[in-house]
Amino acid sequence: MKIAFCYPGQGVQKTGMAQDFVLSDSRAGLMLDKASAAAELDMRALLFEENEKINITEYTQPALVTACMIMTESLLAKGVRPDIAAGLSLGEYCALTVAGAMSFEDAVRITRIRGRLMAGAVPAGEGAMAAVIGLESGVIEQAIKDIEGCYIANYNCPGQIVITGRKASVEEAMVRLTGAGARKVVPLNVSGPFHSPLLKKCGEELGKALVEISIKKPEIPYIANVTAQIVTDGKEIRPLLQKQVASPVRWEQTLLRLKESGVGLIVEIGPGKTIAGFCKKTCPETEVVSVGCVGDIDKVLEAISIKEHVS
To answer: Which fold has domain 2-121+198-310?
Structure first.
């Protein structure tokens, strides 16, 4: 049985995430110190004290990566090792880190840069995103194909697609998709039109920053958002990450790729159960255990033990 570590994207962050891991393991405290130095932030204050920064993209991104990797380290310390990794949007940086392609410090450093670039890519109020519930992707693609400035941002799972682009274009698409039979079309509270061609220049700037960090051949495979293909060559990673900010996230296809690769257990690492929800609608036969607190690690160990016993 193969095990996949999967990581959520921006939006699941919350004050206090990973705090119980830090209180129970001195290694987690050392990781906080490393993250603070890498991001040039007080990561303890950002993660554990009530503040507005936790929901500001520039700070959210390194904070969420830090929390998820602290949780990951606790799993690794218990002997839980992934055979493959994947992450949704921002989560791809955690996947690369657990795969050994990027250091923890570099992941924190580059995601703060990424967050800053994404937040400033389009003037405030000019971009928008919306979740479309209850329509097939093909219907959505057909409906928006002639709306200039509107694009698909995320293929999350069957029946849940996110659109992105210029505000007026997304609003036009929302009306059209409601008329096409969508169960719900919900505007998202985001600061920009993420994963759209409007962020192409942002991707180019990110590409320049990526040159400054070390990226190695992954020790285990990971699945890239842009292609939903397995990546084992370190040379492919920089261009994929550059494209990622301006391209749709193929998460439904990623989950299917994990299933195709023989994954029987997905360990979702981070706050919430977003990935578990997407998996239930995409490949319900794949077991998912979500790890958001120390107590959840026992659930992973139990799931592994049961599967090994059955096999």
So the answer is: Malonyl-Coenzyme A Acyl Carrier Protein; domain 2 (3.40.366)
